[in-house]
């Protein structure tokens, strides 16, 4: 693929097909957006794989926080095995410890569980006590594809300076900008050299409504603009 990458959150087959029709490059598959996205079922991933050729980056997360004790890691590792068999192309996860640092023990355990598939470190990085230290911890981990980040816990609008700093530090190629991403943010992000974009609520009327392919098409055009 050349140009920019556009990733769309999909909850089901209908979302996935609409995302493909609109020109998305890949999907993030989640369940329960009321909890900010949890692990979907293998049945959902298999159903999407049967109807849509786009690669599925599948969420591994049990609850709305970013903690993972050994029992959670074991459960998510089992989930990953079933989801790989169902058609996952990669995974999305990331954990913080009680001090707000990247939980490398939990994260590395899941990297091993999903290997050799690529993975995205999700927005836990935006909630770290020391964001720069979190990036240093994550950026060299094996098979890392992207880091889903808004630059700030409150969204891309507040995080633009951090995203620019990450791009200036040489991390632009792994930044997947998302979380409160709006069309007005895209020109600046492109100027920074960021070329991967993640949208969810921006391509649907609400989380109870399906993805609208026309909105995906608008984002496709937007992120490709020179």
Question: What are the key terms here?
Answer:
alpha/beta, copper ion binding
Quick gist of this model?
The chain is of the alpha/beta class and 226 residues long.
Describe the secondary structure blueprint for this structure:
Blueprint: E1 5-10, H1 13-22, E2 26-29, H2 42-51, E3 56-59, H3 70-86, E4 90-93, H4 104-114, E5 119-121, H5 131-138, E6 144-149, H6 156-171, E7 175-177, H7 186-192, E8 196-199, H8 213-224
Helix pairs in contact: 1-2, 1-8, 2-3, 3-4
Biggest β-sheet: strands ordered side by side in the sheet: 7-6-5-4-3-2-1-8
Large-scale geometry: globular
Strand content: 15-25%
Mean pLDDT: 95
Q: Tell me the structural class.
A: alpha/beta
The poorly predicted ranges are none
Largest sheet: 8 strands, parallel
Number of discrete helical segments: 8
Radius of gyration: 16 Å
Along the chain, the helix and strand elements come as EHEHEHEHEHEHEHEH
Q: Helical residue percent?
A: 40-55%
Distance between the termini: 17 Å
- Give me the count of strands: 8
Pfam families: CutC (PF03932)
Protein name: Copper homeostasis protein cutC homolog
GO molecular function: copper ion binding
Family: Belongs to the CutC family.
């Amino acid at each position: 693929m050349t140009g920019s990458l556009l990733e769309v959150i999909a909850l089901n087959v209908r979302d996935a097909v609409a995302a493909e029709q609109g020109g998305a490059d890949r999907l993030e598959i989640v369940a329960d957006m009321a909890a900010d996205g949890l692990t979907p079922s293998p049945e959902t991933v298999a159903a999407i794989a049967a109807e849509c050729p786009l690669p599925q980056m599948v969420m591994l997360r049990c609850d709305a926080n970013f903690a993972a004790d050994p029992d959670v890691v074991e459960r998510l590792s089992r989930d990953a095995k079933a989801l790989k068999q169902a058609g996952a192309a990669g995974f999305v996860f990331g954990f913080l410890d009680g001090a707000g640092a990247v939980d490398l023990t939990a994260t590395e355990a899941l990297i091993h569980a999903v290997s050799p598939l690529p993975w995205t470190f999700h927005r836990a990085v935006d909630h770290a006590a020391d964001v720069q230290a979190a990036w240093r911890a994550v950026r060299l981990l094996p098979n890392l594809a992207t880091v889903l980040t808004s630059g700030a816990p409150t969204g891309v609008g507040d995080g633009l300076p951090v995203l620019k700093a990450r791009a200036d530090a040489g991390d632009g190629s792994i930044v997947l900008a998302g979380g409160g991403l709006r069309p007005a943010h895209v020109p600046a992000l492109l100027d920074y050299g960021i070329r991967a974009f993640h949208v969810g609520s921006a391509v649907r009327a609400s989380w109870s409504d399906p993805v609208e392919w026309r909105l995906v098409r608008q984002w496709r055009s937007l992120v490709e603009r020179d």
